[in-house]
Amino acid sequence: MRFSPDGKYLASAAWDRTIKIRKVDDWSTVYTLEGHKNAINSIDFNAELSLLVSSAGNNAVQESDNSVIVWDMKT
């Protein structure tokens, strides 16, 4: 999980390989991001809150991933 630099959003990674972006004031889901093939290891916002970066690795249960995805927070 990671709070945005301005404290208005929370990004959380789940076992279903999705990332949820929620507004902190009412916990409503703003975005559900899908794209990783394996468990998400890390997520972080840039200082301007224009990008979110996530990474996923490998394990014996799911398909290999070893990827980094840069998400545009405006689109």
Word description of this protein:
The strands form 2 sheets. A 4-stranded antiparallel beta sheet has the order 1-2-3-4, with no helix packed on it. A 3-stranded antiparallel beta sheet has the order 5-6-7, with no helix packed on it. Strand 5 and strand 6 form a beta hairpin. The chain is mainly beta. It has strands at residues 2-3, 9-13, 18-23, 29-34, 40-45, 51-56, 67-72. The mean pLDDT is 91.
Helices and strands in order, then pairings?
Layout: E1 2-3, E2 9-13, E3 18-23, E4 29-34, E5 40-45, E6 51-56, E7 67-72
Antiparallel strand pairs: 1-2, 2-3, 3-4, 5-6, 6-7
Provide a short characterization of the protein structure.
By secondary structure, the protein is mainly β. It has no helices and seven strands.
How many strands appear in the DSSP assignment?
A: 7
Number of helices: 0
Mean pLDDT: 91
CA-CA gap between termini: 21 Å
Low-confidence stretches: none
Q: From N to C, what is the helix and strand string?
A: EEEEEEE
Please bin the fraction of helical residues: under 10%
Fraction in beta strands:
over 45%
Structural class: mainly beta
Alpha carbon gyration radius: 12 Å
Sheet with most strands: strand arrangement: 1-2-3-4
Silhouette: globular
Largest sheet: 4 strands, antiparallel
Key features?
single chain; 75 residues; mainly beta; four-stranded antiparallel sheet; three-stranded antiparallel sheet; 7 strands; 0% helix; 49% strand; globular
